[in-house]
Amino acid sequence: MSSKTIRFIFIAMLVIVGLLFVTQAYWFNKAFALQETQLDDRINITLRSVADGLLKLDNDTTARIAPITKTSSNEFYVRTDCYFSLRSLDSLLRQEFLKRKLDLEFDYGIVTDENKQLVLGNTFSTMVKVTDISCRIRRDGKERRNFKILLTNKTGYLLNAMGIWVFSSASLILILVVFVFILVSIQKGKKLDLLKKDFVNNMTHELKTPIANITVASDAMRNPNIKMDDDKLRKYAEIIHKENARLHQLVDRVLEIATIEKHEESLLIEEVDLHSVIHDIVGSFAALIQQKEGKIMLDLDDSQVQLNADKIHLSNVLYNLIENAIKYSLGSPEIRVKTERNEMGATIHISDKGIGMSKENQHRIFEKFFRAESGNLHTTKGHGLGLSYVKMIVEKHHGTVTFKSVKGKGSTFSLFLPY
């Protein structure tokens, strides 16, 4: 199955999952609204019964129905226009709520008609101001009172009453999350598989060259028909030595990254002179730069920069970045190494005027095994581990590494390392 087909299936499944989630959310919201309407009706009936009880206690025989206003989603205002005590209100509220099996927690307060002020209450501290209450003074001199009630756990009560809906929604969300996780894992697995194939192809190519050189040199030394003088013998021995060292370097790099990832190797932190390390690394490229007729320009901070770092790993990081700058430069390399410092740490910028990289690949530059070229192209040698190693080491030093590039114009790597 092609990558394009897999990508299409992956996107289609994500769309289906999204539609299922939206559908479930819509019907859950509808069910919640219906449940809330039914609960509000029950609360209205309950509060009317409470108001009727208060009117009877006040000897009001007009048989009028007290108006009830819903002032917010969980607050109700009841106008009784009669006199009652806090104890009577509390008793009737609890009695009526228990009678109708409304297991709701609530706060309440008594409000006067005359000055719209809270007279008494239990813990009702967020009363909504009443501006539309018309007041009448009773002939017997007692003030007319109304009350408000605030349901403190209404949402929880509704969710509890919608048990099957909550369970089904939670189950569906869990299934969708697991499904998306599986899809993403499959996609990542396929991507990693492709990267590993690229790595194997690149590594095979890297191993072939030194092995072939060692074979040619050793065969020449063993061939009795070839006359060997000291110069030729030294030349072939040097080829074998260099190519053997190259093989060791490749194997050691792979093993080194594996060891660091498993946290089996800790950094050997010591005080390091950053500029001294940079001079040493740049000096190791002098012959290669001269051969390619290029140049490495140093723009180092005037003051000495001392860091607490692992000198070997820090040297490897700088070596990798400068080696890449040379490797991906067309013609004569022009590389600039610049350092800056502030109160937090030091920043190292390594810039080149090489081939650069397209924007679509830049976010993957630090992925293990990733190379901008496909696995069977070897215009530049490498196996996709160098920059992954760089990022890993810098982060182990609690620093950061960033990358900027313009295709055809060059790239800049910036490393920040704290003191």
Structure explained in plain terms:
The protein is an alpha+beta fold. It has 3 domains: 3-161, no CATH class; 164-261, Helix Hairpins, CATH 1.10.287.130; 270-418, Heat Shock Protein 90 (2-Layer Sandwich), CATH 3.30.565.10. The protein is built from 10 helices and 12 strands. Strand 11 (400-406) and strand 12 (410-418) form a beta hairpin. The protein is elongated.
The secondary-structure element order is: HEEHEEEHHHEHHEEHEEHHEE
Mean pLDDT: 79
β content, as a range? 15-25%
Helix coverage percent: 40-55%
Number of helices: 10
Instruction: Compute the separation of the termini in Å.
Output: 51 Å
Class computed from helices, strands and strand pairing = alpha+beta
Using DSSP, what is the number of strands? 12
Lay out the secondary structure.
Blueprint: H1 3-57, E1 68-72, E2 75-82, H2 86-99, E3 106-112, E4 118-121, E5 145-151, H3 154-161, H4 163-222, H5 230-261, E6 270-273, H6 274-284, H7 286-291, E7 295-299, E8 306-309, H8 311-327, E9 334-341, E10 345-352, H9 359-362, H10 386-396, E11 400-406, E12 410-418
Parallel strand pairs: 7-9
Antiparallel strand pairs: 1-2, 2-5, 3-4, 3-5, 6-8, 9-10, 10-12, 11-12
Characteristics:
5-stranded antiparallel sheet, Helix Hairpins, 18% strand, alpha+beta, 10 helices, Heat Shock Protein 90, 3 domains
Please sum up the structure shown.
The protein has 419 residues and is of the alpha+beta class. The chain is built from ten helices and twelve strands. The strands form three sheets. Strands 1-2-5-3-4 form a five-stranded antiparallel beta sheet, with helices on one face. A five-stranded mixed beta sheet has the order 7-9-10-12-11, with helices on one face.
